[in-house]
Amino acid sequence: MAATLIAPAQAQESPYIVAYDHYLEEPGSLEVEYFSTFGTQRNGNDFHAFWGEFEYGATAWWTTEIYLDGQTTFNDSTIFTGFRWENRFRLLQREHFINPVLYIEYEQISGADKILKEVEGHDVESDYAVPNAIARREHDHELESKLLLSKTFHGWNVAENTIATKNLTGGNPWEFGYAVGASRPLALKASAHRCSFCRQNFIAGVEMYGGLGDRYTFGLHDTSQYLAPVVAWNLPSDWTLRLSPGFGLNHNSHQFLLRWGVSREFSGFGDLVARVFGGRK
Amino acid sequence: MISAAVVLALCAPLLSAQKGSYTPDRKDVYAPLGQVPKKAAARRNPLEGDPDAVAGGANLFDQHCAECHGELAEGGRKGPSLRADPVQQATPGTLFWILTNGVVRRGMPVWSKLPEPQRWQLVSYLKSLRPAEKGPQ
């Protein structure tokens, strides 16, 4: 029964891995995603962090998402590092010159989390050199908010995200960060036939992200900053592949981050759940 | 305790999903077509007469629209028929505006993430449909 209700759906996924544009998941669709981040580490062991995402379009103006994080630190161990619950709310009904989306996320992660899905506050490379056995003792409950601003014109998408995070454990101050991105499909018109290597299936761009200090020491001092080209390949077989080599821009940053991800969108998931739990026919 | 609250809260969007979805007997389902700004409705399709536009639009429709509006645009469980008179009589600019802005309150997402030429291709395809036909001309 599930096979008849849930069908793969081809989406036009953005190539961003850290930045967000203002587009939400289609209502009733579930997108299942897997991402990896390989990071170099000075004065410590390189690592491979990974996470799974389950992104669901609750309505046309609300997308909710669960993350499960883990990481392998080479010559150390592989551990589960926590979960995140993310919600994005479209604030305006129609498209405008700039389109705002409110992002609210609750995170329950350990100090060993290394997915670097966002960089904020005074996050620096040396924080990640701590052995897993010690880092995982730290348990963080964080509330993360973002204002996502995005605009698409002449095929280009430009996105800016402002981040404010509060660690609910201890007396930590609000921390700030940002992410910006720009991307464009390689071709703007669709071909008459489905094809894997058509230029319109590829979206390329660049994103930049980093910390902006905290409430008491706002600014770029003692922060890490990254620049990362990004590319997405939206396959007609309903899969999307993403690749992004990232480069640290100062001495506080990891020198190199290689990210990649694979995702698939399934339409009709909401209907299936409604039938199972609500008895809808 | 916090974890339990989070799990409970997670169930809410799944169970409340699709509340704003299309109901076939809603007579005002095409009302948004009449709310398009005049200037936008007057826009002409720059791909009018382009023989590839309809075929490309059909391809896009199959990928992005058929799941809600039906494979033949005859209407589905979530979206109304696009072969109906209100749609077929709407100007190309009106359809383009609806595609761009969506009808978010009623469950149709914005499609401005498709580049402008692709949205016009979709309009070309929609305008090629006729109520009795099984596919594009």
TL;DR?
The complex is a heterodimer of chains A (281) and B (137). Chain A is mainly beta and 281 residues long. Chain A is built from 3 helices and 13 strands; from the N terminus they run αββββββαβββββββα.
**Total of DSSP H or I helical runs spanning 4+ residues of chain B:** 7
Q: What ranges of chain B have pLDDT less than 50 throughout 5 or more consecutive residues?
A: 18-24
**CATH homologous superfamily grouping of chain A:** monomeric porin ompg
Q: What distance separates the N and C termini of chain A?
A: 12 Å
What CATH first level of chain A would be assigned?
A: Mainly Beta
The CATH H-level superfamily of the domain at 52-130 in chain B is: Cytochrome c-like domain
- Count of separate DSSP helical elements of chain A: 3
Query: Under CATH, the topology of the domain at 52-130 in chain B is which?
Result: Cytochrome Bc1 Complex, Chain D, domain 2
CATH architecture assignment name of the domain at 52-130 in chain B: Orthogonal Bundle
Which bin fits the share of residues in helices of chain B? 40-55%
Provide the number of structural domains of chain A.
1
Q: Can you summarize the main beta sheet of chain A?
A: 12 strands, antiparallel, barrel
CATH topology of chain A: Porin
**Largest interface: chains, residues each:** A-B, 51 and 45 residues
Following the backbone from N to C, one meets helices and strands of chain B in this order, namely HHHHHHH
